[in-house]
Specification:
The complex is a heterodimer of chains A (about 290) and B (about 325). By secondary structure, chain A is mainly α. Chain A is about 70% helix and about 0% strand. With about 325 residues, chain B is mainly alpha-helical. The chains are: A mainly alpha (about 290), B mainly alpha (about 325).
């Protein structure tokens, strides 16, 4: 990894002919340290999960006789498959609903100018700043009154609209050429038709970004499921992990296998859509 | 974690709406139908609960639906301020936030500037690797570090022992536990922040740098007078995210790894809220502590936004 296939002549020249090579090496050194720090714990998780029980404390960088016994243990001990399915349902539904409610709200704010637009925009943005822990007791009381405790619906509904989703789509929609909207309106198209036939097909990129971010953060969500969940089989994989750790905290092999299984879907998404995932997260952070 | 990708630095005022879409004066029901799902959900799960939490902070209630709520006025607040726990939690909150800064802002900023001329495949590979912690679930991150730092057989413990530093109770010694949790919280951010700074840095118009170089500016001079000012929006954004959300990000690690211990050394204000609410079942205390936290962070947020408006340099 230290060898860069295409030496950047311009930067070599600007840094001076002598210091260039040394500096380049130092640059790579910094990035290698950072990459190592980022990736090693995950690598170590996978390696540990593949070690048989009698080798679990080994420090070799690769298991000498890899086995899947830890995975078998986890899959038989806790309802891992069920929890993974639950998590997939919750994450996909949350992402879908955030896109839909976000599209509607953003469309309303872009398409019509109302006297209260500013206030509504402000209300949406400020809802972001309310820490969840502050509203958790009333939320919990509401969820239990609605009979949502220990249900997947209870995990989805409170997150079905999010300020982040609305603002992301609003900002994207604002740059949409209004001439087209206007032309469609003069043509007599209804606002509903304009939204689905003209706006949405042109919002592919922001909708994809939002779906990726919403799915991943719903997958990783911990606090709200922690409040709502009672039984592991009705819950998501993060809660399953936490329960497994509390009960079998020192069975390192199975614990790492469980963690690996819980991260697998996200890591696969990342491997396949790597560039999109990074860009989605970055774009919404950069203006 | 989504919360950190916020573009909160954006001014909250509504930008100009294209003239074509204006319909002043007449009331139309349609936009409200489109707004209804999002607004109802936000009202139901954020704003109404916020008001209810405010009310609850003046009551004593043990969270049982059948138990009465007793009005106690400001007693909850007075008690809280007198509690040493609360003071410890506030100090720890400050420590978490300050401790995160090197990892969420300072190191990434300098790494990004230092490594700016990396190109090609190496850059792509580094990018892909350092981003990974960002998408790892907090519970998984907690478990990974618990394994690496494990006091008996953790890889890092064994490593430290080999170099003769002895065993350190990273999560069990009150001296180190808070720093350990801060590190784990920061581990998820360091690569992401670096990528944000790199992108912002790469977006700087190279003609400014060229002009400065022709004028004889030193490498450091260019960084100080051109790069840092032009990176200030990103610096302010990430600082604001760290201040506003840093303590919340650490919640999962506290909950999974230490439960606020040892000796309350890792508890922070958000963890205290949770403990009062769902462990000691005192809804009034939890709500009062929540209001204190909310008011505190709201003031800080307003201050940050003012700073952003005042000091961020935009290259238009």
């Amino acid at each position: 990894m230290t060898i860069d296939a295409s030496p950047d002549l311009a930067s070599l020249a600007s840094a001076g002919p002598k210091s260039g090579g040394v500096r380049r090496l130092a640059v790579h050194a910094v990035m290698i340290v950072l990459s190592f720090l980022s990736i090693f714990p995950i690598y170590w998780m996978i390696v540990t999960s593949l070690r048989p029980e009698n080798e679990i404390f080994s420090t070799s960088l690769w298991p000498s006789n890899p086995s899947l016994e830890n995975y078998v243990f986890v899959l038989t001990r806790i309802p891992m498959i069920g929890m993974l399915i639950n998590t997939t349902i919750v994450s996909a539904a949350t992402a879908l609903l955030q896109v839909v409610t976000g599209l509607f709200a953003a469309y309303a704010l872009v398409r019509w100018r109302m006297r209260l637009s500013g206030v509504i925009h402000g209300l949406i943005a400020l809802s972001w700043l309310v820490p969840f822990q502050v509203t958790m007791i009333p939320n919990y009381v509401l969820a239990s009154r609605l009979g949502l405790l220990d249900t997947l619906t209870g995990l989805i509904v409170p997150n079905a609209a999010h300020a982040f989703a609305i603002l992301l789509l609003y900002n994207a929609m604002r740059s949409f050429p209004t001439e087209i909207l206007e032309a469609a309106r003069i043509d007599g198209a209804r606002s509903w038709k304009i939204l689905w036939q003209i706006v949405v097909p042109n919002m592919g990129a922001p909708i994809a970004s939002l779906s990726i971010i919403a799915f991943i953060s719903a997958w990783n969500e911990y606090f709200w499921p922690l409040l709502l969940s009672r039984k592991p089989e009705n819950s998501v994989v993060q809660i399953g992990l936490q329960m497994f750790m509390t009960q079998e905290g020192n069975l390192w092999g199975p614990l790492m296998a469980a963690s690996a299984l819980a991260s697998l879907p996200i890591l696969i998404i990342y491997l396949v859509l790597q560039r999109h995932v990074i860009e989605s997260f970055m774009k919404s952070g950069i203006r | 974690m989504t919360d950190i990708q916020a573009d909160l630095a954006r001014p909250l005022t509504l930008a100009r709406v294209p003239a074509a879409a204006r319909q002043r004066g007449t009331f139309t029901v349609q936009p409200w139908l489109y707004l209804a799902p999002a607004l109802c959900l936000l009202m139901m799960w954020t704003y109404v609960p916020l008001v209810e939490a405010f009310q609850l902070s003046f009551y004593q209630w043990n969270m049982l639906p059948t138990a009465p709520q007793r009005y106690v006025g400001l007693t909850n607040y007075q008690r809280l301020f007198a509690l040493p726990e609360m003071r410890a939690a506030l100090w720890n909150t400050l420590f978490y936030i300050l401790g995160l800064f090197p990892m969420s802002v300072i190191i990434p900023l300098f790494v990004a500037i230092w490594t700016q001329d990396l190109e090609g495949r190496a850059r792509t590979i580094y990018r892909a690797l350092i981003f990974v912690p960002m998408i790892v679930a907090p519970v998984v991150a907690a478990i990974l570090w618990r394994w690496l730092l494990n006091e008996d057989q953790g890889l890092i413990t064994l490593g430290l022992e080999t170099v003769g530093l002895g065993r350190i109770g990273f999560l069990t010694d009150p001296k180190y536990a808070l720093a350990t949790l801060t590190w784990i919280t920061g581990w998820k951010l360091i690569g992401f922040s670096t990528l944000l700074f790199s992108a912002a840095n790469a977006g700087i118009n190279p003609s400014y740098i060229e002009a400065a170089r022709i004028d004889g500016a030193s490498r450091w001079g260019i960084i100080r007078d051109i790069r840092l000012p032009l990176l200030s929006p990103t610096i302010l954004l990430l600082s604001m995210m760290t201040i506003l959300f840093g303590a919340q990000w650490s919640f999962a690690y506290i909950n999974v790894l230490t439960n606020g211990g040892p000796l309350k050394s890792t508890t922070n204000i958000f963890y205290l809220l949770w403990e009062y609410g769902f462990q000691t079942m005192s809804a009034g205390w939890s709500s009062a502590a929540g209001m204190i936290a909310f008011a505190g962070f709201a003031v800080i947020a307003a201050g940050c936004m003012w700073l952003t408006k005042r000091f961020a340099v935009y290259d238009n």
